[in-house]
Design brief:
Length: about 280
């Protein structure tokens, strides 16, 4: 049987109106995240990946009543929350215990597993992105609005071994809790920066990175381009695609063949298709 014994010094909050919980709810707003330099990470898998990536949470809020003794949620193996909690304690992270009602108030996901962490805001500047070696592969998204799409692209970037992800003129920020959730925590594993389109293009040029932009406005298929060497693959916004500035700067404009009635693919799916063509050409990384 799992032992939920807690150190006596750890704070317990039972009231859903506690001021500390109000500060957690405020971190759902971008303005608050930017002012405080903090964001939220919820879930065993996401917090675990953040730790593996070297991130140390400021505080972790836990509700043992929501822990899964078997380490499972339905048919999914979610791991042992107690093991992760012990790991956090070993790293001297502040642990705050919440009642079930208090935790459910601050949780932003369905079916919470009893773990919610406050971490420093994620994302770096273009100047902090390291471009090393002749085979640097980057993903650039321009004007993407939906956190789920940004998160999905991060998961693909992590799986494909992408060296950097740049959000040009983003509508949301990397610290959006729904970006963190959709990325399954890979936002902490993949170097991710935000910039204007002009700044991103200057960065590409300064680092001798070729730009391949997806668009229906071309006859060149995505499989007919050489993706070896230093390359950035770019996708545009959900509604409008890549703008003229990005298209004019492209080394190649490519399209993904489509045979159905729909005239476009989901932006995250488009990014995945072209990225994995690059992976195929480059061989196993």
């Amino acid at each position: 049987m799992t032992n939920h014994t807690r150190p006596a010094r750890e704070l317990t909050i039972t009231s859903a109106s506690n001021p500390r919980l109000k500060s957690l709810l405020a971190l759902r707003r971008r303005r608050t995240r930017e002012e405080t330099g903090q964001t939220l990470v919820e879930g065993y898998e996401e917090i675990g990946l953040a730790l593996t990536s070297g991130l140390r949470p400021r505080t972790v809020y836990v509700c043992e009543d929501l822990f899964s003794p078997a380490g499972r949620a339905g048919s999914q193996d979610i791991g042992q929350q107690d093991d992760l909690l012990a790991r956090l304690r070993d790293d001297r992270v502040e642990v705050v215990h919440l009642s079930r009602s208090a935790f459910e108030k601050v949780s932003y996901r369905e079916g919470p597993d009893g773990l919610l962490a406050v971490v420093d805001r994620v994302g770096i500047t273009l100047d902090d992105l390291r471009v090393e070696g002749p085979d640097h592969l980057a993903l650039l998204s321009q004007g993407v609005e939906k956190p789920g799409n940004l998160g999905a692209m991060l998961r693909t970037a992590d799986a494909a071994g992408v060296d950097a992800v740049v959000a040009a003129d983003p509508v949301t920020d990397w610290g959006n809790p729904n970006v963190v959730r959709a990325s399954k925590g890979t936002v902490f594993a993949v170097p991710a920066a935000s910039a204007t389109t002009a700044e991103a293009l200057e960065w590409l040029q300064a680092n001798d990175i070729r730009l391949v932009v997806t668009t229906p406005e071309t006859d060149l298929l995505h499989t007919d381009v050489d993706y070896t060497g230093r390359v950035a693959i770019a996708v545009g916004s959900e509604k409008h695609g890549a703008d003229r500035t990005l298209l004019d700067a492209a080394t190649h404009r490519v399209r993904i063949p489509m045979s159905g009635l729909a005239n476009s693919l989901n932006v995250a799916a488009s990014a995945a298709i072209v990225l994995y063509e690059a992976v195929r050409q480059r061989g196993s990384r």
